[in-house]
Design brief:
Length: about 850
RNA sequence: GCCGAAGUGGCGGAAUUGGUAGACGCGUCGGAUUCAAAAUCCGAUUCUCGCAAGAGAGUGUGGGUUCGAUUCCCACCUUCGGUACCA
């Protein structure tokens, strides 16, 4: 009987399902006493397209680790769920007028089927979906906590409005003036929206990054996004007016070089200080600047514009007049919305000064060019600066800050780039806000005991004709609320962004069916933090920053008994980003793509089979339009789930971007077949003749190699080096299948090593060989260190750093003897040509280098 | 521009407290088995020169440190990701 994954895989999946093999106990008493391991995948958005082979890469890695840790005796928490609110389902709903819940259910069912077909050891009893009312009840509950702590507020704010989607977007969702997901342009609008005060946590979000084991790049991205900078806030008086404004600067040392000031177009002071002569020009400038969308502002980056307000500021030190301009290179959203311009030492101010012929005064010497030509932003010695002259930049910063504080004209200060999180969306398929609005503009939150506020039925899923969000289509029965005290209000018609549900799902997995509270204290205490979190790097800022923020808020919130809602400062102790999986695509000269099955290779070049036309091949992101998407379904059909799992990990290091090559699956498939044949006689279907009942030690060489293999696989798994772990098992298999006799104990332990990687095959062989119980619940083999040490070592002999020979020497041979052996070596003598060695270097266990 | 990651055979990739470059796999070539094929098994496979033994070159480029560099240092090139008037 041959290796037939199509038969054994569904069989074992059914066994695991029926026996609930991977169910994690909910009994705290039972859990205690064993160490825990919480290994989490970023849960997917269940799209209509189903999985492609990129999805299971991370899932396979976490599954191998979950199975490995279980075999090592850990209580393992390994759940899966659905981030199921969101745009694609809503769009489909709009188009076909089907409830998005119906579309979502179909997609989730398909995703679950695909994920299950890979034999992952999830505890399906803990499956959650952000769209179920049982779940979003608690999302709303957390929102109430945010309101309670004054971290959620409504404000008239300039928002990113996306006309194509008819909704607002968060800063994090917009790049270069377009929505990052769809590329639709975004424009500025002022709207009254819910905001979350993430800026109140900027400091902790920044500093606690030091305590987590995350890729340095991701930490850096978050640091950059939070954007801390240290500097000073300086007050400027306006001449002939009872007005003043502050500026933030990181270069207080250059204050004496300030030759003008600039306010952002949105700065409130403009209407008070602009002189009548300049009024018209300024008003017009403000209006034009307001109309520019983000894209235009980006495009016009280089070309700075501005208008003189006619007003002058009094320089806080020299008390000389400096003109006040308005310019849209100054952002209202950062710092004070105003800058002191020092053209000699700031590139932007320099460009602006050149354009409008404003004076440029050098105050830091040491630039390569004259400051009239280019700004000198580097270090140097202060000049033209009164009491700062002669100091270097950092000393001058200190001195100036001290002077400003003494004279009450400024103080040390810091700023964050991070802005509050815009939390409203004008969509249907999201969590409703538990909020009731009244005619007078006030609002109240819905009491906890009335949660969840469920999504109402609506006739259509698009905005109303007068531009209100889809929830405004719900009837008065849902919209209008009468409170016990007789007041009448109207429900909020915005919904929360998709990020809301994913901000805390890792906590719901701990206790997914709890109807009294979002999670129990005991479960949280036992399982948190997440020990390993695996997902794509695309969430480096958005999801991971938002989730950390909510987690910290929950850390600050108390239960009735005074304990914290979560016990850890950070949710995800270790983060790992799997690399993207790319695929080959084939395109002709006209740019038309061809499916891999339509092309053929000849002498390293590719041609369309039908026409013989040449095509270019390139490695690109998988996408429908490039016809290069590989579905796990087709791979499993052809090779089985075990081969699919193995190839996902054998391709290369998990964190690396790498191309999918279906031909590469052949290699791992052959490996699995050979493992099968190692144990099973294909003719009879019985256990192979060569498998003997003798002790492992009776085949000494093979046993030694096997113990080295155990060690290698174990160390590699601990370091998430799956590809080299698989290579080590292949190496062992090559030796084992060449051996005439294979002691059964070795074979049984080898199958345990294979288990986490190819669990179906391993269960089947384990059962056929008479293993006890399921291999999924068996112990991990231990290596014997003694057997991993060789008695003789291969030593390389070099002459002048070049390898000339290698010899076998006993492991404990003294250095001197090795040296003698090397110097007497025939090949060494040939290359030393009779010359006296100048130096001989002996590296024990490695090599001897003879220098002449 | 700034920040981060990475450049190794025909291909995916191994090897880093500085010590045999190319593990393992794909592909290719040769052989066995077969009436034939598939499958399977065995062998070869960095490049150049050579019948061979062997020699030389070689980890993006150019320098440097060292007995010895894929690994450390300096400069540069390329690719990918992030970010972009943040004062």
């Amino acid at each position: 009987m041959r290796y037939q994954p199509a038969q054994i895989e569904p069989k074992w999946q059914q066994v695991w399902d029926e026996q609930k093999t991977f169910k994690t106990s909910t009994d705290m008493a039972e859990l205690k006493g064993k160490p825990k391991y919480y290994v989490l995948d970023m849960f997917p958005y269940p799209s209509g397209a189903g999985l492609h082979v990129g999805h299971p890469e991370g899932y396979t890695a976490t599954d191998v680790l979950a199975r490995y840790k279980r075999m090592l005796g850990f209580n393992v928490l390994h759940p899966m769920g659905w981030d199921a609110f969101g745009l694609p389902a809503e769009r489909a709903a709009m188009r076909d007028n089907i409830h998005p819940a119906v579309i979502t259910k179909t997609n989730v069912d398909n995703f679950r089927r695909q994920i299950k077909s890979l034999g992952f050891s999830y505890d399906w009893d803990r499956e959650v979906s952000t769209t179920s009312a049982d779940y979003y009840k608690w999302t709303q509950w957390i929102f109430l906590k945010l309101v309670e702590k004054d971290l959620a507020y409504m404000a008239e704010v300039p928002v990113n409005w996306c006309p194509a989607l008819k909704t607002v977007l968060a800063n994090e969702e917009v790049k270069d003036g377009v929505y990052v997901e769809t590329g639709d342009p975004v424009e500025k609008r002022v709207m009254k929206q819910w905001m979350l005060k993430i800026t109140a946590y900027a400091d902790r979000l920044l500093h606690d990054l030091d305590d987590v084991d995350w890729p340095e790049g991701v930490k850096e991205m978050q640091r950059n996004w939070i954007g801390y900078s240290l500097g000073a806030k300086i007050q400027f008086e306006v001449e002939n007016a009872q007005a003043q404004f502050g500026v933030f600067t990181t270069r207080a040392d250059t204050l004496m070089g300030c030759t003008y000031c600039c306010l952002a177009p949105e700065h409130p002071l403009l209407k008070d200080i602009t002189t009548p002569q300049q009024r018209e020009a300024v008003d017009q400038y403000i209006q034009t600047a307001g109309q520019k969308d983000a894209l235009q502002r980006t495009d016009l980056e280089k070309d700075k514009t501005g208008v003189f307000t006619g007003a002058y500021a009094i320089h806080p030190v020299t008390e000389k007049k400096v003109p006040i301009w308005v310019a849209d290179y100054v952002l209202m959203s950062y710092g004070e919305g105003a800058v002191m311009a020092v053209p000699a030492h700031d590139e932007r101010d320099h460009a602006f000064a050149l354009k409008y012929d404003l004076p440029i005064v050098e105050v830091v010497s040491g630039g390569e060019k004259s400051v009239q030509e280019a700004a000198h932003t580097g270090n140097g010695t202060l000049v033209n600066s009164d009491f700062l002259n002669g100091l270097d930049v950092s000393a001058a910063k200190e001195r100036m800050a001290a002077w400003l504080e003494e004279h009450s004209r400024g103080e040390k200060s810091h700023n964050y780039k991070l802005r509050d999180w815009l939390f409203s969306r004008q969509r249907y398929w999201g969590e409703p806000f538990p909020v009731i609005h009244f005619d007078d503009g006030s609002y109240e939150t819905v009491p906890v005991d009335q949660l969840p506020v469920e999504l109402p039925a609506v006739d259509e899923y698009k905005p109303t004709d007068d531009g209100r969000p889809p929830l405004a289509r719900a009837g008065d029965e849902w919209l209008m609320v009468e409170l016990p005290d007789g007041r009448k209000g109207m429900r909020e018609t915005n919904t929360m962004p998709q990020w809301a549900g994913s901000c805390w799902y890792y906590l719901r997995y701990l206790d997914p069916t709890n109807s009294e509270e979002p999670w129990s204290k005991e479960a949280e205490n036992y399982w948190m933090p997440v020990d390993l979190y695996v997902g794509g790097v695309e969430h480096a800022v958005l999801h991971l920053l938002y989730a950390r923020f909510w987690h910290k808020v929950l850390y600050d919130c108390q239960r009735e008994d005074g304990s914290r809602w979560v016990s850890t400062k950070e949710p995800f102790q270790k983060l790992f980003n799997q690399g993207m999986i790319l695929a080959y695509s084939y395109r002709d000269a006209r740019g038309k793509y061809y499916h891999p099955s339509e092309v053929e290779e000849k002498d390293g070049k590719w041609f369309v089979q039908a026409s013989g036309e040449p095509v270019e091949t390139q490695i690109e992101k998988m996408s429908k339009s490039r016809l290069n998407v590989v579905s796990p379904d087709e791979v499993i059909e052809q090779y089985g789930a075990d081969a699919m799992r193995l190839y996902e990990l054998f391709m290369g290091p998990l964190d690396q971007t790498k191309p999918w090559q279906t031909s590469g699956v052949d290699g791992v498939y052959r490996f699995l077949q050979r493992v099968w044949r190692l144990a099973i006689d294909e003719e009879s279907g019985e256990v192979s003749q060569r498998v003997t009942d003798e002790a492992a030690a009776s085949q000494a060489d093979l046993n030694k190699l096997f113990h080295k293999t155990i060690k290698k696989v174990t160390v590699d798994l601990d370091n998430m080096r799956f590809n080299t772990a698989i290579a080590a098992m292949m190496t062992f298999l090559n030796e084992a299948s060449a051996a005439e006799r294979l002691p059964k104990p070795i074979l049984m332990d080898f199958i345990r090593l294979v288990g986490p990687f190819a669990p179906h095959l391993a269960e089947e062989l384990w059962a056929r060989l008479g293993g006890e119980g399921l291999i999924s619940l068996a112990d991990w083999p231990q290596h014997d260190e003694q057997l991993c040490i060789d008695d003789t070592i291969k030593m390389v002999l070099q002459v002048n750093g070049k390898k000339r020979d290698e010899i076998d020497v006993p492991r404990d041979m003294p250095k001197g003897e090795i040296e003698q052996l090397a110097l007497g070596n025939e090949r060494v003598l040939k290359f030393t040509e009779g010359k006296e060695p100048r130096r001989v270097i002996v590296v024990p266990g490695r090599l001897v280098n003879v220098v002449v």
